């Protein structure tokens, strides 16, 4: 009864707000978040029992005790290869085992020796390899500080917010609701304040301590059951949440923890809700808001002019992150004071994580450079999958292309209007009644004919396959999953059922390897009827979306094998994409690279394909936010990111649509998409002028495909983001730290899309003292380290190439990227003030794993120095033959030579050239050399 | 500067059928192309003349130099078709993909020649039916021109026959249209005649009714004549009612406020009132009974205003008064009947005028569609198109939804009667009202052939009708024939 009243009040309160918000919990409505957040900022009740310390070569274990309830925890510390520290905290003897996230790390992270520097009653000091890097452990209260010389880099539990709700037996349901409204912690502290001193350390058995503690513990509402709207969470295991705080002295800028519709630089959360990480299908999301969206990557980056670091909180349960600004002196205490000093008024950012279940498992990535953090994180969770080249082209999507004739007509429309594209997409209506892996018999009677028609044009298709499975005894997929007993179970052990597109649906348990293997096998050409090599896959609704579930997702007490949905929630989407990508690999016998787009994601999802920012809207604000949203994802490993071009909901006017194409052309995943109810918006439907503008934007994308491909190759090899915030390349330039209306592609291109209606110009920050930048369209040269006002017209896309870089382009634009395979390159050599430049060229077959398994690729370095441009091999042991050759070289910021000579193994010959004095562009005609060979062009 | 008149050539992807007579003319042309291509091949390096039409061949004669066709640049002839773009207009690379703005000429022996964008040269897709666009040999393109030519000629002939048949039917429909139009005009005239007849009759009836009313009033009036207790009382009551300020006398203003002209309810002038009251100045009850009261009872010129009459209470109905009202009532019933007939006729005339004011095409060839509906069943929906009226969709569950009401002809200027627009149908959920665009296609029957909904709630229908067959096309074709 009480709950009904509470729910009723909440409904009324939320009714006043935007409709969409009321479907989703605030921190106050999530009982563990509320409990954790109301926890006091007093001294931590945890202390380290130094007697229990054990140090093996690379691992330190130590028990922690909560002096209030005597529950003991086990701390594990690892020094990992590549300047990282791993910190794990679990209950020493949990009532049941607690969930530890599998399948996200690419392997057990390799460790490095950990040695003790000193030890006394107050704590221990451990060496992190060098003399300068040490880990200071303070026993009472428990706290950890990572120091470098005299500088504290990061403190753990500096604010004493370590909390660990130990698992406990379920008691009589009558005592469930306590009348106490105040903080549980306050009351506990009062109760134990006299006992604390008397307890002799390590003497009591932990069981005894727990019993004693538990008997006295007050319980709060929401610990054993909670209700949101009409949904009851039965919480059979009771409270299980965890929390830990991190202090970052000297840090004012933190980034990451996507997915939020938020600026690149994270805001402090003191005045509102924490940032929430809980994969949700949010209908018409709001901008600049800490609410959870479709995906979650619990990785936060900190940055200042000296150092970049990262915190990876490996937990897949509902998680909240509080960020506050502080001064360093306030939280510095204990043993670390013997080792390091921090000016007491130095700025500091405090970050606190709390999750509903699982254990504390944190990776502290110590940088120090941004690229080091990317490498460190990549070594843990892997890198961006290397996508097929064609997937970097343009994608034409709509909910829905209605039938085969519609697909044919849209395909023909692109040819008629001479706009390249690589993929046309089919949304849910292509299926037989939302039964995935099937086709609507009336509208898509001959899917293979349709796919062959696209193949004849060297184009491809993506069809949607969602994870909710229609409960229908006439549906093979459903019957097999049911008979194999692979569905997620409800709390009572039956198959979990929810509402989604097909009506009543079951949800396969993708956390089960058997389920994933079976799912993957469904993509075989003989299983997925009508499929062909040029059909790829899109996984939507994999948060999972459950229309009639709490917060439009699955009930937390649903069961995945031995775990609750509560434990694995944020992993579900990753597993769906993982199984699908595996299916696409398997169907080709392991030869072809897959392409799978996902909406939900987690740490590690970068290994399986692309993500998009979900159901955005045709509004200028949504266009603008696509930049920080994709930048944030790139920082945490997910480079293949894009937003629906044009906006999913509502109708874009021609100006917004054009600007969105221009922006999307310079973002990694370039796909137009639209809601079922919107009018058609294929690129040629807005008059010849707008068609021309869109055509031009798409063509710019295609010309740059060699560069995009090379950037993805690097992202795949190193984990570096393709689309980067400026501070990643200019880490000491404070002016770049908050910029999120422009970005870099790799190191060489700076893009400032126009995202304001009726814009007359944009102010572009060109970074780099002593550097120069060249307008990519006019080749005009500008000095770095300035704010440049760039007047714009509707056709402008402000893009600049960094002086000192070489970018290969393919300027012959064809109908699809595949058609451009053998085309020659034009090299854009932008000279630095010193008259030098360098770049790369990467070529492979564009679609198989042969680059990896058989080292079939070309990777060359292009260098311009001392008036000569040369191409040299970067990978002596790889082999690949290309038909592409060097068609033209443009030297930006060049001078007029008297002669230009090409030197190859076959000898020398002179080349024609022309010099435009007005723009200082030297154009060298037709070196004609194969793109895979050694050559030098000399200017005399 | 070279001046050159461009030969009109279709793009390769344009189908011959839809572009009218032109293909046939080109089918004729290809024979000539064959001959010339064979001859010139003897003299020029085949690579150099790749992608060049016969008409342009003269600009690509082997010389030392080549002048870009826009006259902007002279380059060594070696650089023609050398896979590097030198001319701004792309004219030096007609046979390669080097120039972004270039074009490649498909000779297509056996079919019709055409241009493709040079970006389609050597892209792995066969565009020219003779396969000449994929000359780098990476892609094998079978020569399909002969087949295509045959197919197209067959299709064209079939289409011409169909157009012939369609035109024949169309002429009949126009003829029918003429008589139908005449018929409707006659119908309109008839209706107008009926209408004026009805109006005359109605006049007469009204008059009669007025007389009947007057008679009734007279009968009633006699019964309530002055001197008679009841009558006097009535006269006194009316007097009291008219005497607004209750001062025992009637002023001109008070009479004007309460008494109006019998025929048209118009207010009375001061002179009229003075006359009715038998002289100027306020009248007391006695003078009222002698003057205005008599006029009111006679019911010939004036009457008590309608809103005052209600206040008079039920008439005193004795047996002697019955005959007069029944006659009046009889008149009333007739009148009503007449008025209804009049309304119906007026509505019919209105409809007919609307029908006749609609645009049915230059020869009223679409008039025959008026009043007809055409149906098509697509899955669970039955679509119904009623030209010049409305469009509906009926689902198998029975619900009928309006997809739009007739709005106007929406074809482009050169073919105004090729599309019909229906707007303002039932609104969509969270969206605008449904609309339907009907495209009219030449056919030998009149039928609804296709319904699509490319965007939610925006329907596109295809109606086949002989009336859409083009007169012009036929004339052109005959011209072609005569050239043969």
TrEMBL record, chain A:
GO cellular component terms given for this protein: glucosidase II complex; Golgi apparatus
Entry's Gene Ontology BP terms: carbohydrate metabolic process; N-glycan processing
Compositionally biased region (Acidic residues): 201-223
Catalyzed reactions: N(4)-(alpha-D-Glc-(1->3)-alpha-D-Man-(1->2)-alpha-D-Man-(1->2)-alpha-D-Man-(1->3)-[alpha-D-Man-(1->2)-alpha-D-Man-(1->3)-[alpha-D-Man-(1->2)-alpha-D-Man-(1->6)]-alpha-D-Man-(1->6)]-beta-D-Man-(1->4)-beta-D-GlcNAc-(1->4)-beta-D-GlcNAc)-L-asparaginyl-[protein] + H2O = N(4)-(alpha-D-Man-(1->2)-alpha-D-Man-(1->2)-alpha-D-Man-(1->3)-[alpha-D-Man-(1->2)-alpha-D-Man-(1->3)-[alpha-D-Man-(1->2)-alpha-D-Man-(1->6)]-alpha-D-Man-(1->6)]-beta-D-Man-(1->4)-beta-D-GlcNAc-(1->4)-beta-D-GlcNAc)-L-asparaginyl-[protein] (N-glucan mannose isomer 9A1,2,3B1,2,3) + beta-D-glucose; N(4)-(alpha-D-Glc-(1->3)-alpha-D-Glc-(1->3)-alpha-D-Man-(1->2)-alpha-D-Man-(1->2)-alpha-D-Man-(1->3)-[alpha-D-Man-(1->2)-alpha-D-Man-(1->3)-[alpha-D-Man-(1->2)-alpha-D-Man-(1->6)]-alpha-D-Man-(1->6)]-beta-D-Man-(1->4)-beta-D-GlcNAc-(1->4)-beta-D-GlcNAc)-L-asparaginyl-[protein] + H2O = N(4)-(alpha-D-Glc-(1->3)-alpha-D-Man-(1->2)-alpha-D-Man-(1->2)-alpha-D-Man-(1->3)-[alpha-D-Man-(1->2)-alpha-D-Man-(1->3)-[alpha-D-Man-(1->2)-alpha-D-Man-(1->6)]-alpha-D-Man-(1->6)]-beta-D-Man-(1->4)-beta-D-GlcNAc-(1->4)-beta-D-GlcNAc)-L-asparaginyl-[protein] + beta-D-glucose
One Pfam family this sequence matches: Gal_mutarotas_2
EC number assigned by the record: 3.2.1.207
CDD domains: GH31_GANC_GANAB_alpha, GH31_N
Pathway listed: Glycan metabolism; N-glycan metabolism
Enzyme class per UniProt: hydrolase
Protein location: Endoplasmic reticulum; Golgi apparatus
One Gene Ontology MF term: Glc2Man9GlcNAc2 oligosaccharide glucosidase activity
Family per record: Belongs to the glycosyl hydrolase 31 family.
Protein's name according to its UniProt entry: Neutral alpha-glucosidase AB
Ranges annotated as spanning the membrane: none
Glycoside hydrolase family 31 TIM barrel domain location: 385-711
Chief location: endoplasmic reticulum
Segment forming the signal sequence: 1-18
UniProt xrefs under PANTHER family: ALPHA-GLUCOSIDASE (PTHR22762), NEUTRAL ALPHA-GLUCOSIDASE AB (PTHR22762:SF162)
Region Disordered, residue ranges: 194-223
TrEMBL record, chain B:
Coiled coil: 181-208
A GO term for molecular function: calcium ion binding
Keyword field: Coiled coil, Disulfide bond, Endoplasmic reticulum, Signal
Example GO biological process: N-glycan processing
Ranges for domain EF-hand: 230-265
Chain spans, region Disordered: 308-331
Classification via InterPro entries: EF_Hand_1_Ca_BS, EF_hand_dom, Gtb1-like, LDL_receptor-like_sf, LDrepeatLR_classA_rpt, Man6P_isomerase_rcpt-bd_dom_sf, MRH_dom, PRKCSH
Signal as UniProt keyword: yes
GO cellular component annotations of the record: glucosidase II complex
Residue intervals of the MRH domain: 371-471
Protein name per its UniProtKB record: Glucosidase 2 subunit beta
Organism: Paramormyrops kingsleyae
Lineage: Eukaryota, Metazoa, Chordata, Craniata, Vertebrata
């Amino acid at each position: 009864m009480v709950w009904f009243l509470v729910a009723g009040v909440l409904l009324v309160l939320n009714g006043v707000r935007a409709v969409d918000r009321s479907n989703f919990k605030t921190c106050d409505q999530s009982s563990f978040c509320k409990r954790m957040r109301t926890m006091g900022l007093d001294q931590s009740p945890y202390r380290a029992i130094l007697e229990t310390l054990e140090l093996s070569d690379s691992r330190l274990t130590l028990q922690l005790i909560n002096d209030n309830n005597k529950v003991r925890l086990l701390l594990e510390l690892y020094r990992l290869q590549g300047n990282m520290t791993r910190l794990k905290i679990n209950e020493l003897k949990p009532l049941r085992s607690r969930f530890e996230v599998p399948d996200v790390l690419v392997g057990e992270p390799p460790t490095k020796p950990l040695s003790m520097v000193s030890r006394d009653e107050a704590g221990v000091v451990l060496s992190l390899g060098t003399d300068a890097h040490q880990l200071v452990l303070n026993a009472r209260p428990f706290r950890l500080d990572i120091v470098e010389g005299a500088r504290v880099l990061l403190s753990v539990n500096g604010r004493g917010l370590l909390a660990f709700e130990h698992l406990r037996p379920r008691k009589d349901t009558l005592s469930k609701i306590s009348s106490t409204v105040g903080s549980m912690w306050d009351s506990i502290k009062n109760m134990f304040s006299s006992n604390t001193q008397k307890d002799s350390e390590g003497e009591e058995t932990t069981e005894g301590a727990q019993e004693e503690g538990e008997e006295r513990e007050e319980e709060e509402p929401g610990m054993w059951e909670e209700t949101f709207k009409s949904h009851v969470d039965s919480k059979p295991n009771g409270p299980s949440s965890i929390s830990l705080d991190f202090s970052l002295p000297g840090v004012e800028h933190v980034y990451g923890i996507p997915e939020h519709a938020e600026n690149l630089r994270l805001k402090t959360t003191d005045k509102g809700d924490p940032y929430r990480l809980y994969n949700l299908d949010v209908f018409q999301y709001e901008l600049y808001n800490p609410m959870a969206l479709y995906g979650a990557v619990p990785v936060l980056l900190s940055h200042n002019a000296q150092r970049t670091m990262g915190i990876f909180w490996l937990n897949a349960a509902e998680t909240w992150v509080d960020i506050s600004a502080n001064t360093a002196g306030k939280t510095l205490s204990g043993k670390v004071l013997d080792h390091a000093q921090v000016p007491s008024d130095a700025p500091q950012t405090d970050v606190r994580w709390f999750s509903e279940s699982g254990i504390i498992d944190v990776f502290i990535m110590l940088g120090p450079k941004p690229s080091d953090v990317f490498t460190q994180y990549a070594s843990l969770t892997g890198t961006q999958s290397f996508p097929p080249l064609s997937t970097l082209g343009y994608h034409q999507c709509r909910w829905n292309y209605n039938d085969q004739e519609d697909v044919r007509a849209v395909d023909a429309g692109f040819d008629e209007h001479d706009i390249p594209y690589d993929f046309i997409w089919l949304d849910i209506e292509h299926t037989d009644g939302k039964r995935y892996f099937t086709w609507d018999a009336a509208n898509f009677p001959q899917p293979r004919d349709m796919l062959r028609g696209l193949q004849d044009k060297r184009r491809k298709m993506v069809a949607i396959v969602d994870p909710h499975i229609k409960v229908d005894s006439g549906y093979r997929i459903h019957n097999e999953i049911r008979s194999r007993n692979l569905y997620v179970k409800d709390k009572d052990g039956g198959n979990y059922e929810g509402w989604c597109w097909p009506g009543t649906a079951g949800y396969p348990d993708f956390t089960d390897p058997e389920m994933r293997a079976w799912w993957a096998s469904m993509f075989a050409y003989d299983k997925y009827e009508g499929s062909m090599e040029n059909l790829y896959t899109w996984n939507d609704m994999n948060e999972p979306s459950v229309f009639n579930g709490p917060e439009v997702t699955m009930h937390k007490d649903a069961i995945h094998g031995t775990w609750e949905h509560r434990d694995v929630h944020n992993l579900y989407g990753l597993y769906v994409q993982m199984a699908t990508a595996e299916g696409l690999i398997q169907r080709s016998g392991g030869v072809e690279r897959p392409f799978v787009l996902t909406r939900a994601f987690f740490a590690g999802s970068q290994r399986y394909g692309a993500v998009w920012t979900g159901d955005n809207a045709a509004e200028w604000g949504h266009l603008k936010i696509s930049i920080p949203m994709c930048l944030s994802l790139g920082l945490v490993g997910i480079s293949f990111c894009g937003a629906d071009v044009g906006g999913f909901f509502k109708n874009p006017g021609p100006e917004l649509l054009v600007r969105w194409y221009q922006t999307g052309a310079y973002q990694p995943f370039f796909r137009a998409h639209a809601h079922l109810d919107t009018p058609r918006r294929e690129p040629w439907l807005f008059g010849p002028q707008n068609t021309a503008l869109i055509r031009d934007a798409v063509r710019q994308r295609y010309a740059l495909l060699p560069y995009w491909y090379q950037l993805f190759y690097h992202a795949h090899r190193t984990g570096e983001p393709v689309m980067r915030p400026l501070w990643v390349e200019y880490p000491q330039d404070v002016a770049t730290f908050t910029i999120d209306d422009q970005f870099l592609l790799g190191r060489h291109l700076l893009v400032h899309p126009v995202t304001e209606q009726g814009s007359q110009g944009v102010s572009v920050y060109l970074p780099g003292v002593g550097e120069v930048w060249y307008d990519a369209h006019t080749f005009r040269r500008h000095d770095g380290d300035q704010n440049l006002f760039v007047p714009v017209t509707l056709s402008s896309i402000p893009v600049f190439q960094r002086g000192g870089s070489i970018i290969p382009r393919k300027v012959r634009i064809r109908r699809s990227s595949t058609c451009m395979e053998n085309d020659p390159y034009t090299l854009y050599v932008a000279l630095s003030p010193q008259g030098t430049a360098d770049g790369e060229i990467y070529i492979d077959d564009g679609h198989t794993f042969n680059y990896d398994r058989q080292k079939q690729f070309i990777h060359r370095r292009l260098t311009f120095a001392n008036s000569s441009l040369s191409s040299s091999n970067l990978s002596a042991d790889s082999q690949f033959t290309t038909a592409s050759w060097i068609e033209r070289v443009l030297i930006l910021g060049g001078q007029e030579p008297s002669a230009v000579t090409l030197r190859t193994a076959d000898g020398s010959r002179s080349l024609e050239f022309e010099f435009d004095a007005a723009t200082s562009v030297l154009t060298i005609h037709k070196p004609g050399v194969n793109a895979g060979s050694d050559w030098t062009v000399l200017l005399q | 500067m070279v001046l050159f008149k461009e030969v009109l050539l279709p793009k390769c992807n344009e189908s011959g059928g839809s572009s009218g007579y032109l293909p046939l003319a080109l089918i004729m042309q290809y024979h000539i192309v064959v001959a010339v291509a064979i001859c010139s091949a003897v003299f020029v390096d085949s690579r150099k003349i790749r992608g060049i039409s016969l008409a342009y061949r003269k600009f690509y004669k082997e010389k030392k130099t080549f002048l870009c066709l826009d006259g902007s640049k002279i380059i060594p002839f070696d650089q023609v078709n050398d896979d590097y773009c030198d001319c701004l207009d792309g004219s030096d690379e007609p046979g390669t993909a080097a120039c972004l703005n270039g074009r490649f000429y498909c000779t297509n022996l056996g079919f019709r020649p055409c241009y493709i964008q040079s970006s389609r040269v050597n892209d792995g897709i066969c565009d020219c039916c003779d396969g000449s666009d994929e000359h780098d040999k990476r892609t094998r393109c079978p020569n399909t021109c002969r087949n295509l030519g045959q197919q197209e000629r067959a299709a064209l002939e079939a289409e011409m026959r169909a157009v012939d048949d369609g035109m024949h039917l169309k002429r009949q429909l126009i003829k029918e249209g003429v008589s139908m139009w005449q018929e409707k005009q006659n119908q309109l005239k008839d209706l107008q005649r009926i209408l004026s007849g009805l109006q005359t009759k109605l006049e007469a009836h009204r008059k009669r009714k007025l007389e009947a009313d007057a008679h009734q009033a007279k009968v009633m009036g006699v019964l309530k004549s002055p001197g008679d207790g009841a009558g006097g009382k009535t006269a006194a009551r009316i007097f009291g009612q008219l005497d607004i300020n209750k001062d025992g006398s009637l002023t001109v203003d008070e009479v004007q406020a309460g008494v109006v002209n019998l025929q048209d309810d118009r207010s009375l002038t001061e002179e009229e009132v003075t006359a009715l009251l038998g002289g100027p100045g306020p009248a007391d009850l006695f003078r009222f009974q002698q003057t205005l009261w008599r006029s009111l009872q006679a019911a010939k010129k004036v009457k008590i205003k309608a809103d005052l009459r209600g206040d008079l209470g039920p008439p005193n109905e004795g047996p002697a008064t019955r005959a007069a009202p029944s006659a009046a009532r009889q008149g009333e019933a007739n009148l009503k009947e007449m008025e209804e007939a009049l309304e119906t006729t007026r509505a019919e005339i209105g409809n007919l005028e609307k029908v006749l004011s609609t645009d049915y095409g230059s020869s009223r060839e679409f008039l025959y569609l008026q009043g007809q509906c055409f149906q098509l069943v697509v899955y669970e929906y039955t679509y119904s198109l009623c030209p010049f009226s409305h469009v509906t969709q009926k689902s198998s569950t029975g619900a009928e939804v309006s997809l739009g009401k007739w709005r106007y002809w929406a074809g482009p200027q050169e073919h105004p009667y090729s599309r019909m627009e229906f707007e303002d149908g039932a609104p969509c959920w969270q969206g605008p009202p449904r609309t339907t665009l009907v495209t009219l296609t030449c056919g030998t029957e009149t039928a609804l052939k296709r319904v699509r909904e490319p965007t939610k709630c925006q329907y596109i229908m295809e109606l086949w009708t002989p009336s859409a067959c083009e007169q012009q096309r036929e004339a052109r074709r005959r011209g072609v024939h005569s050239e043969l």
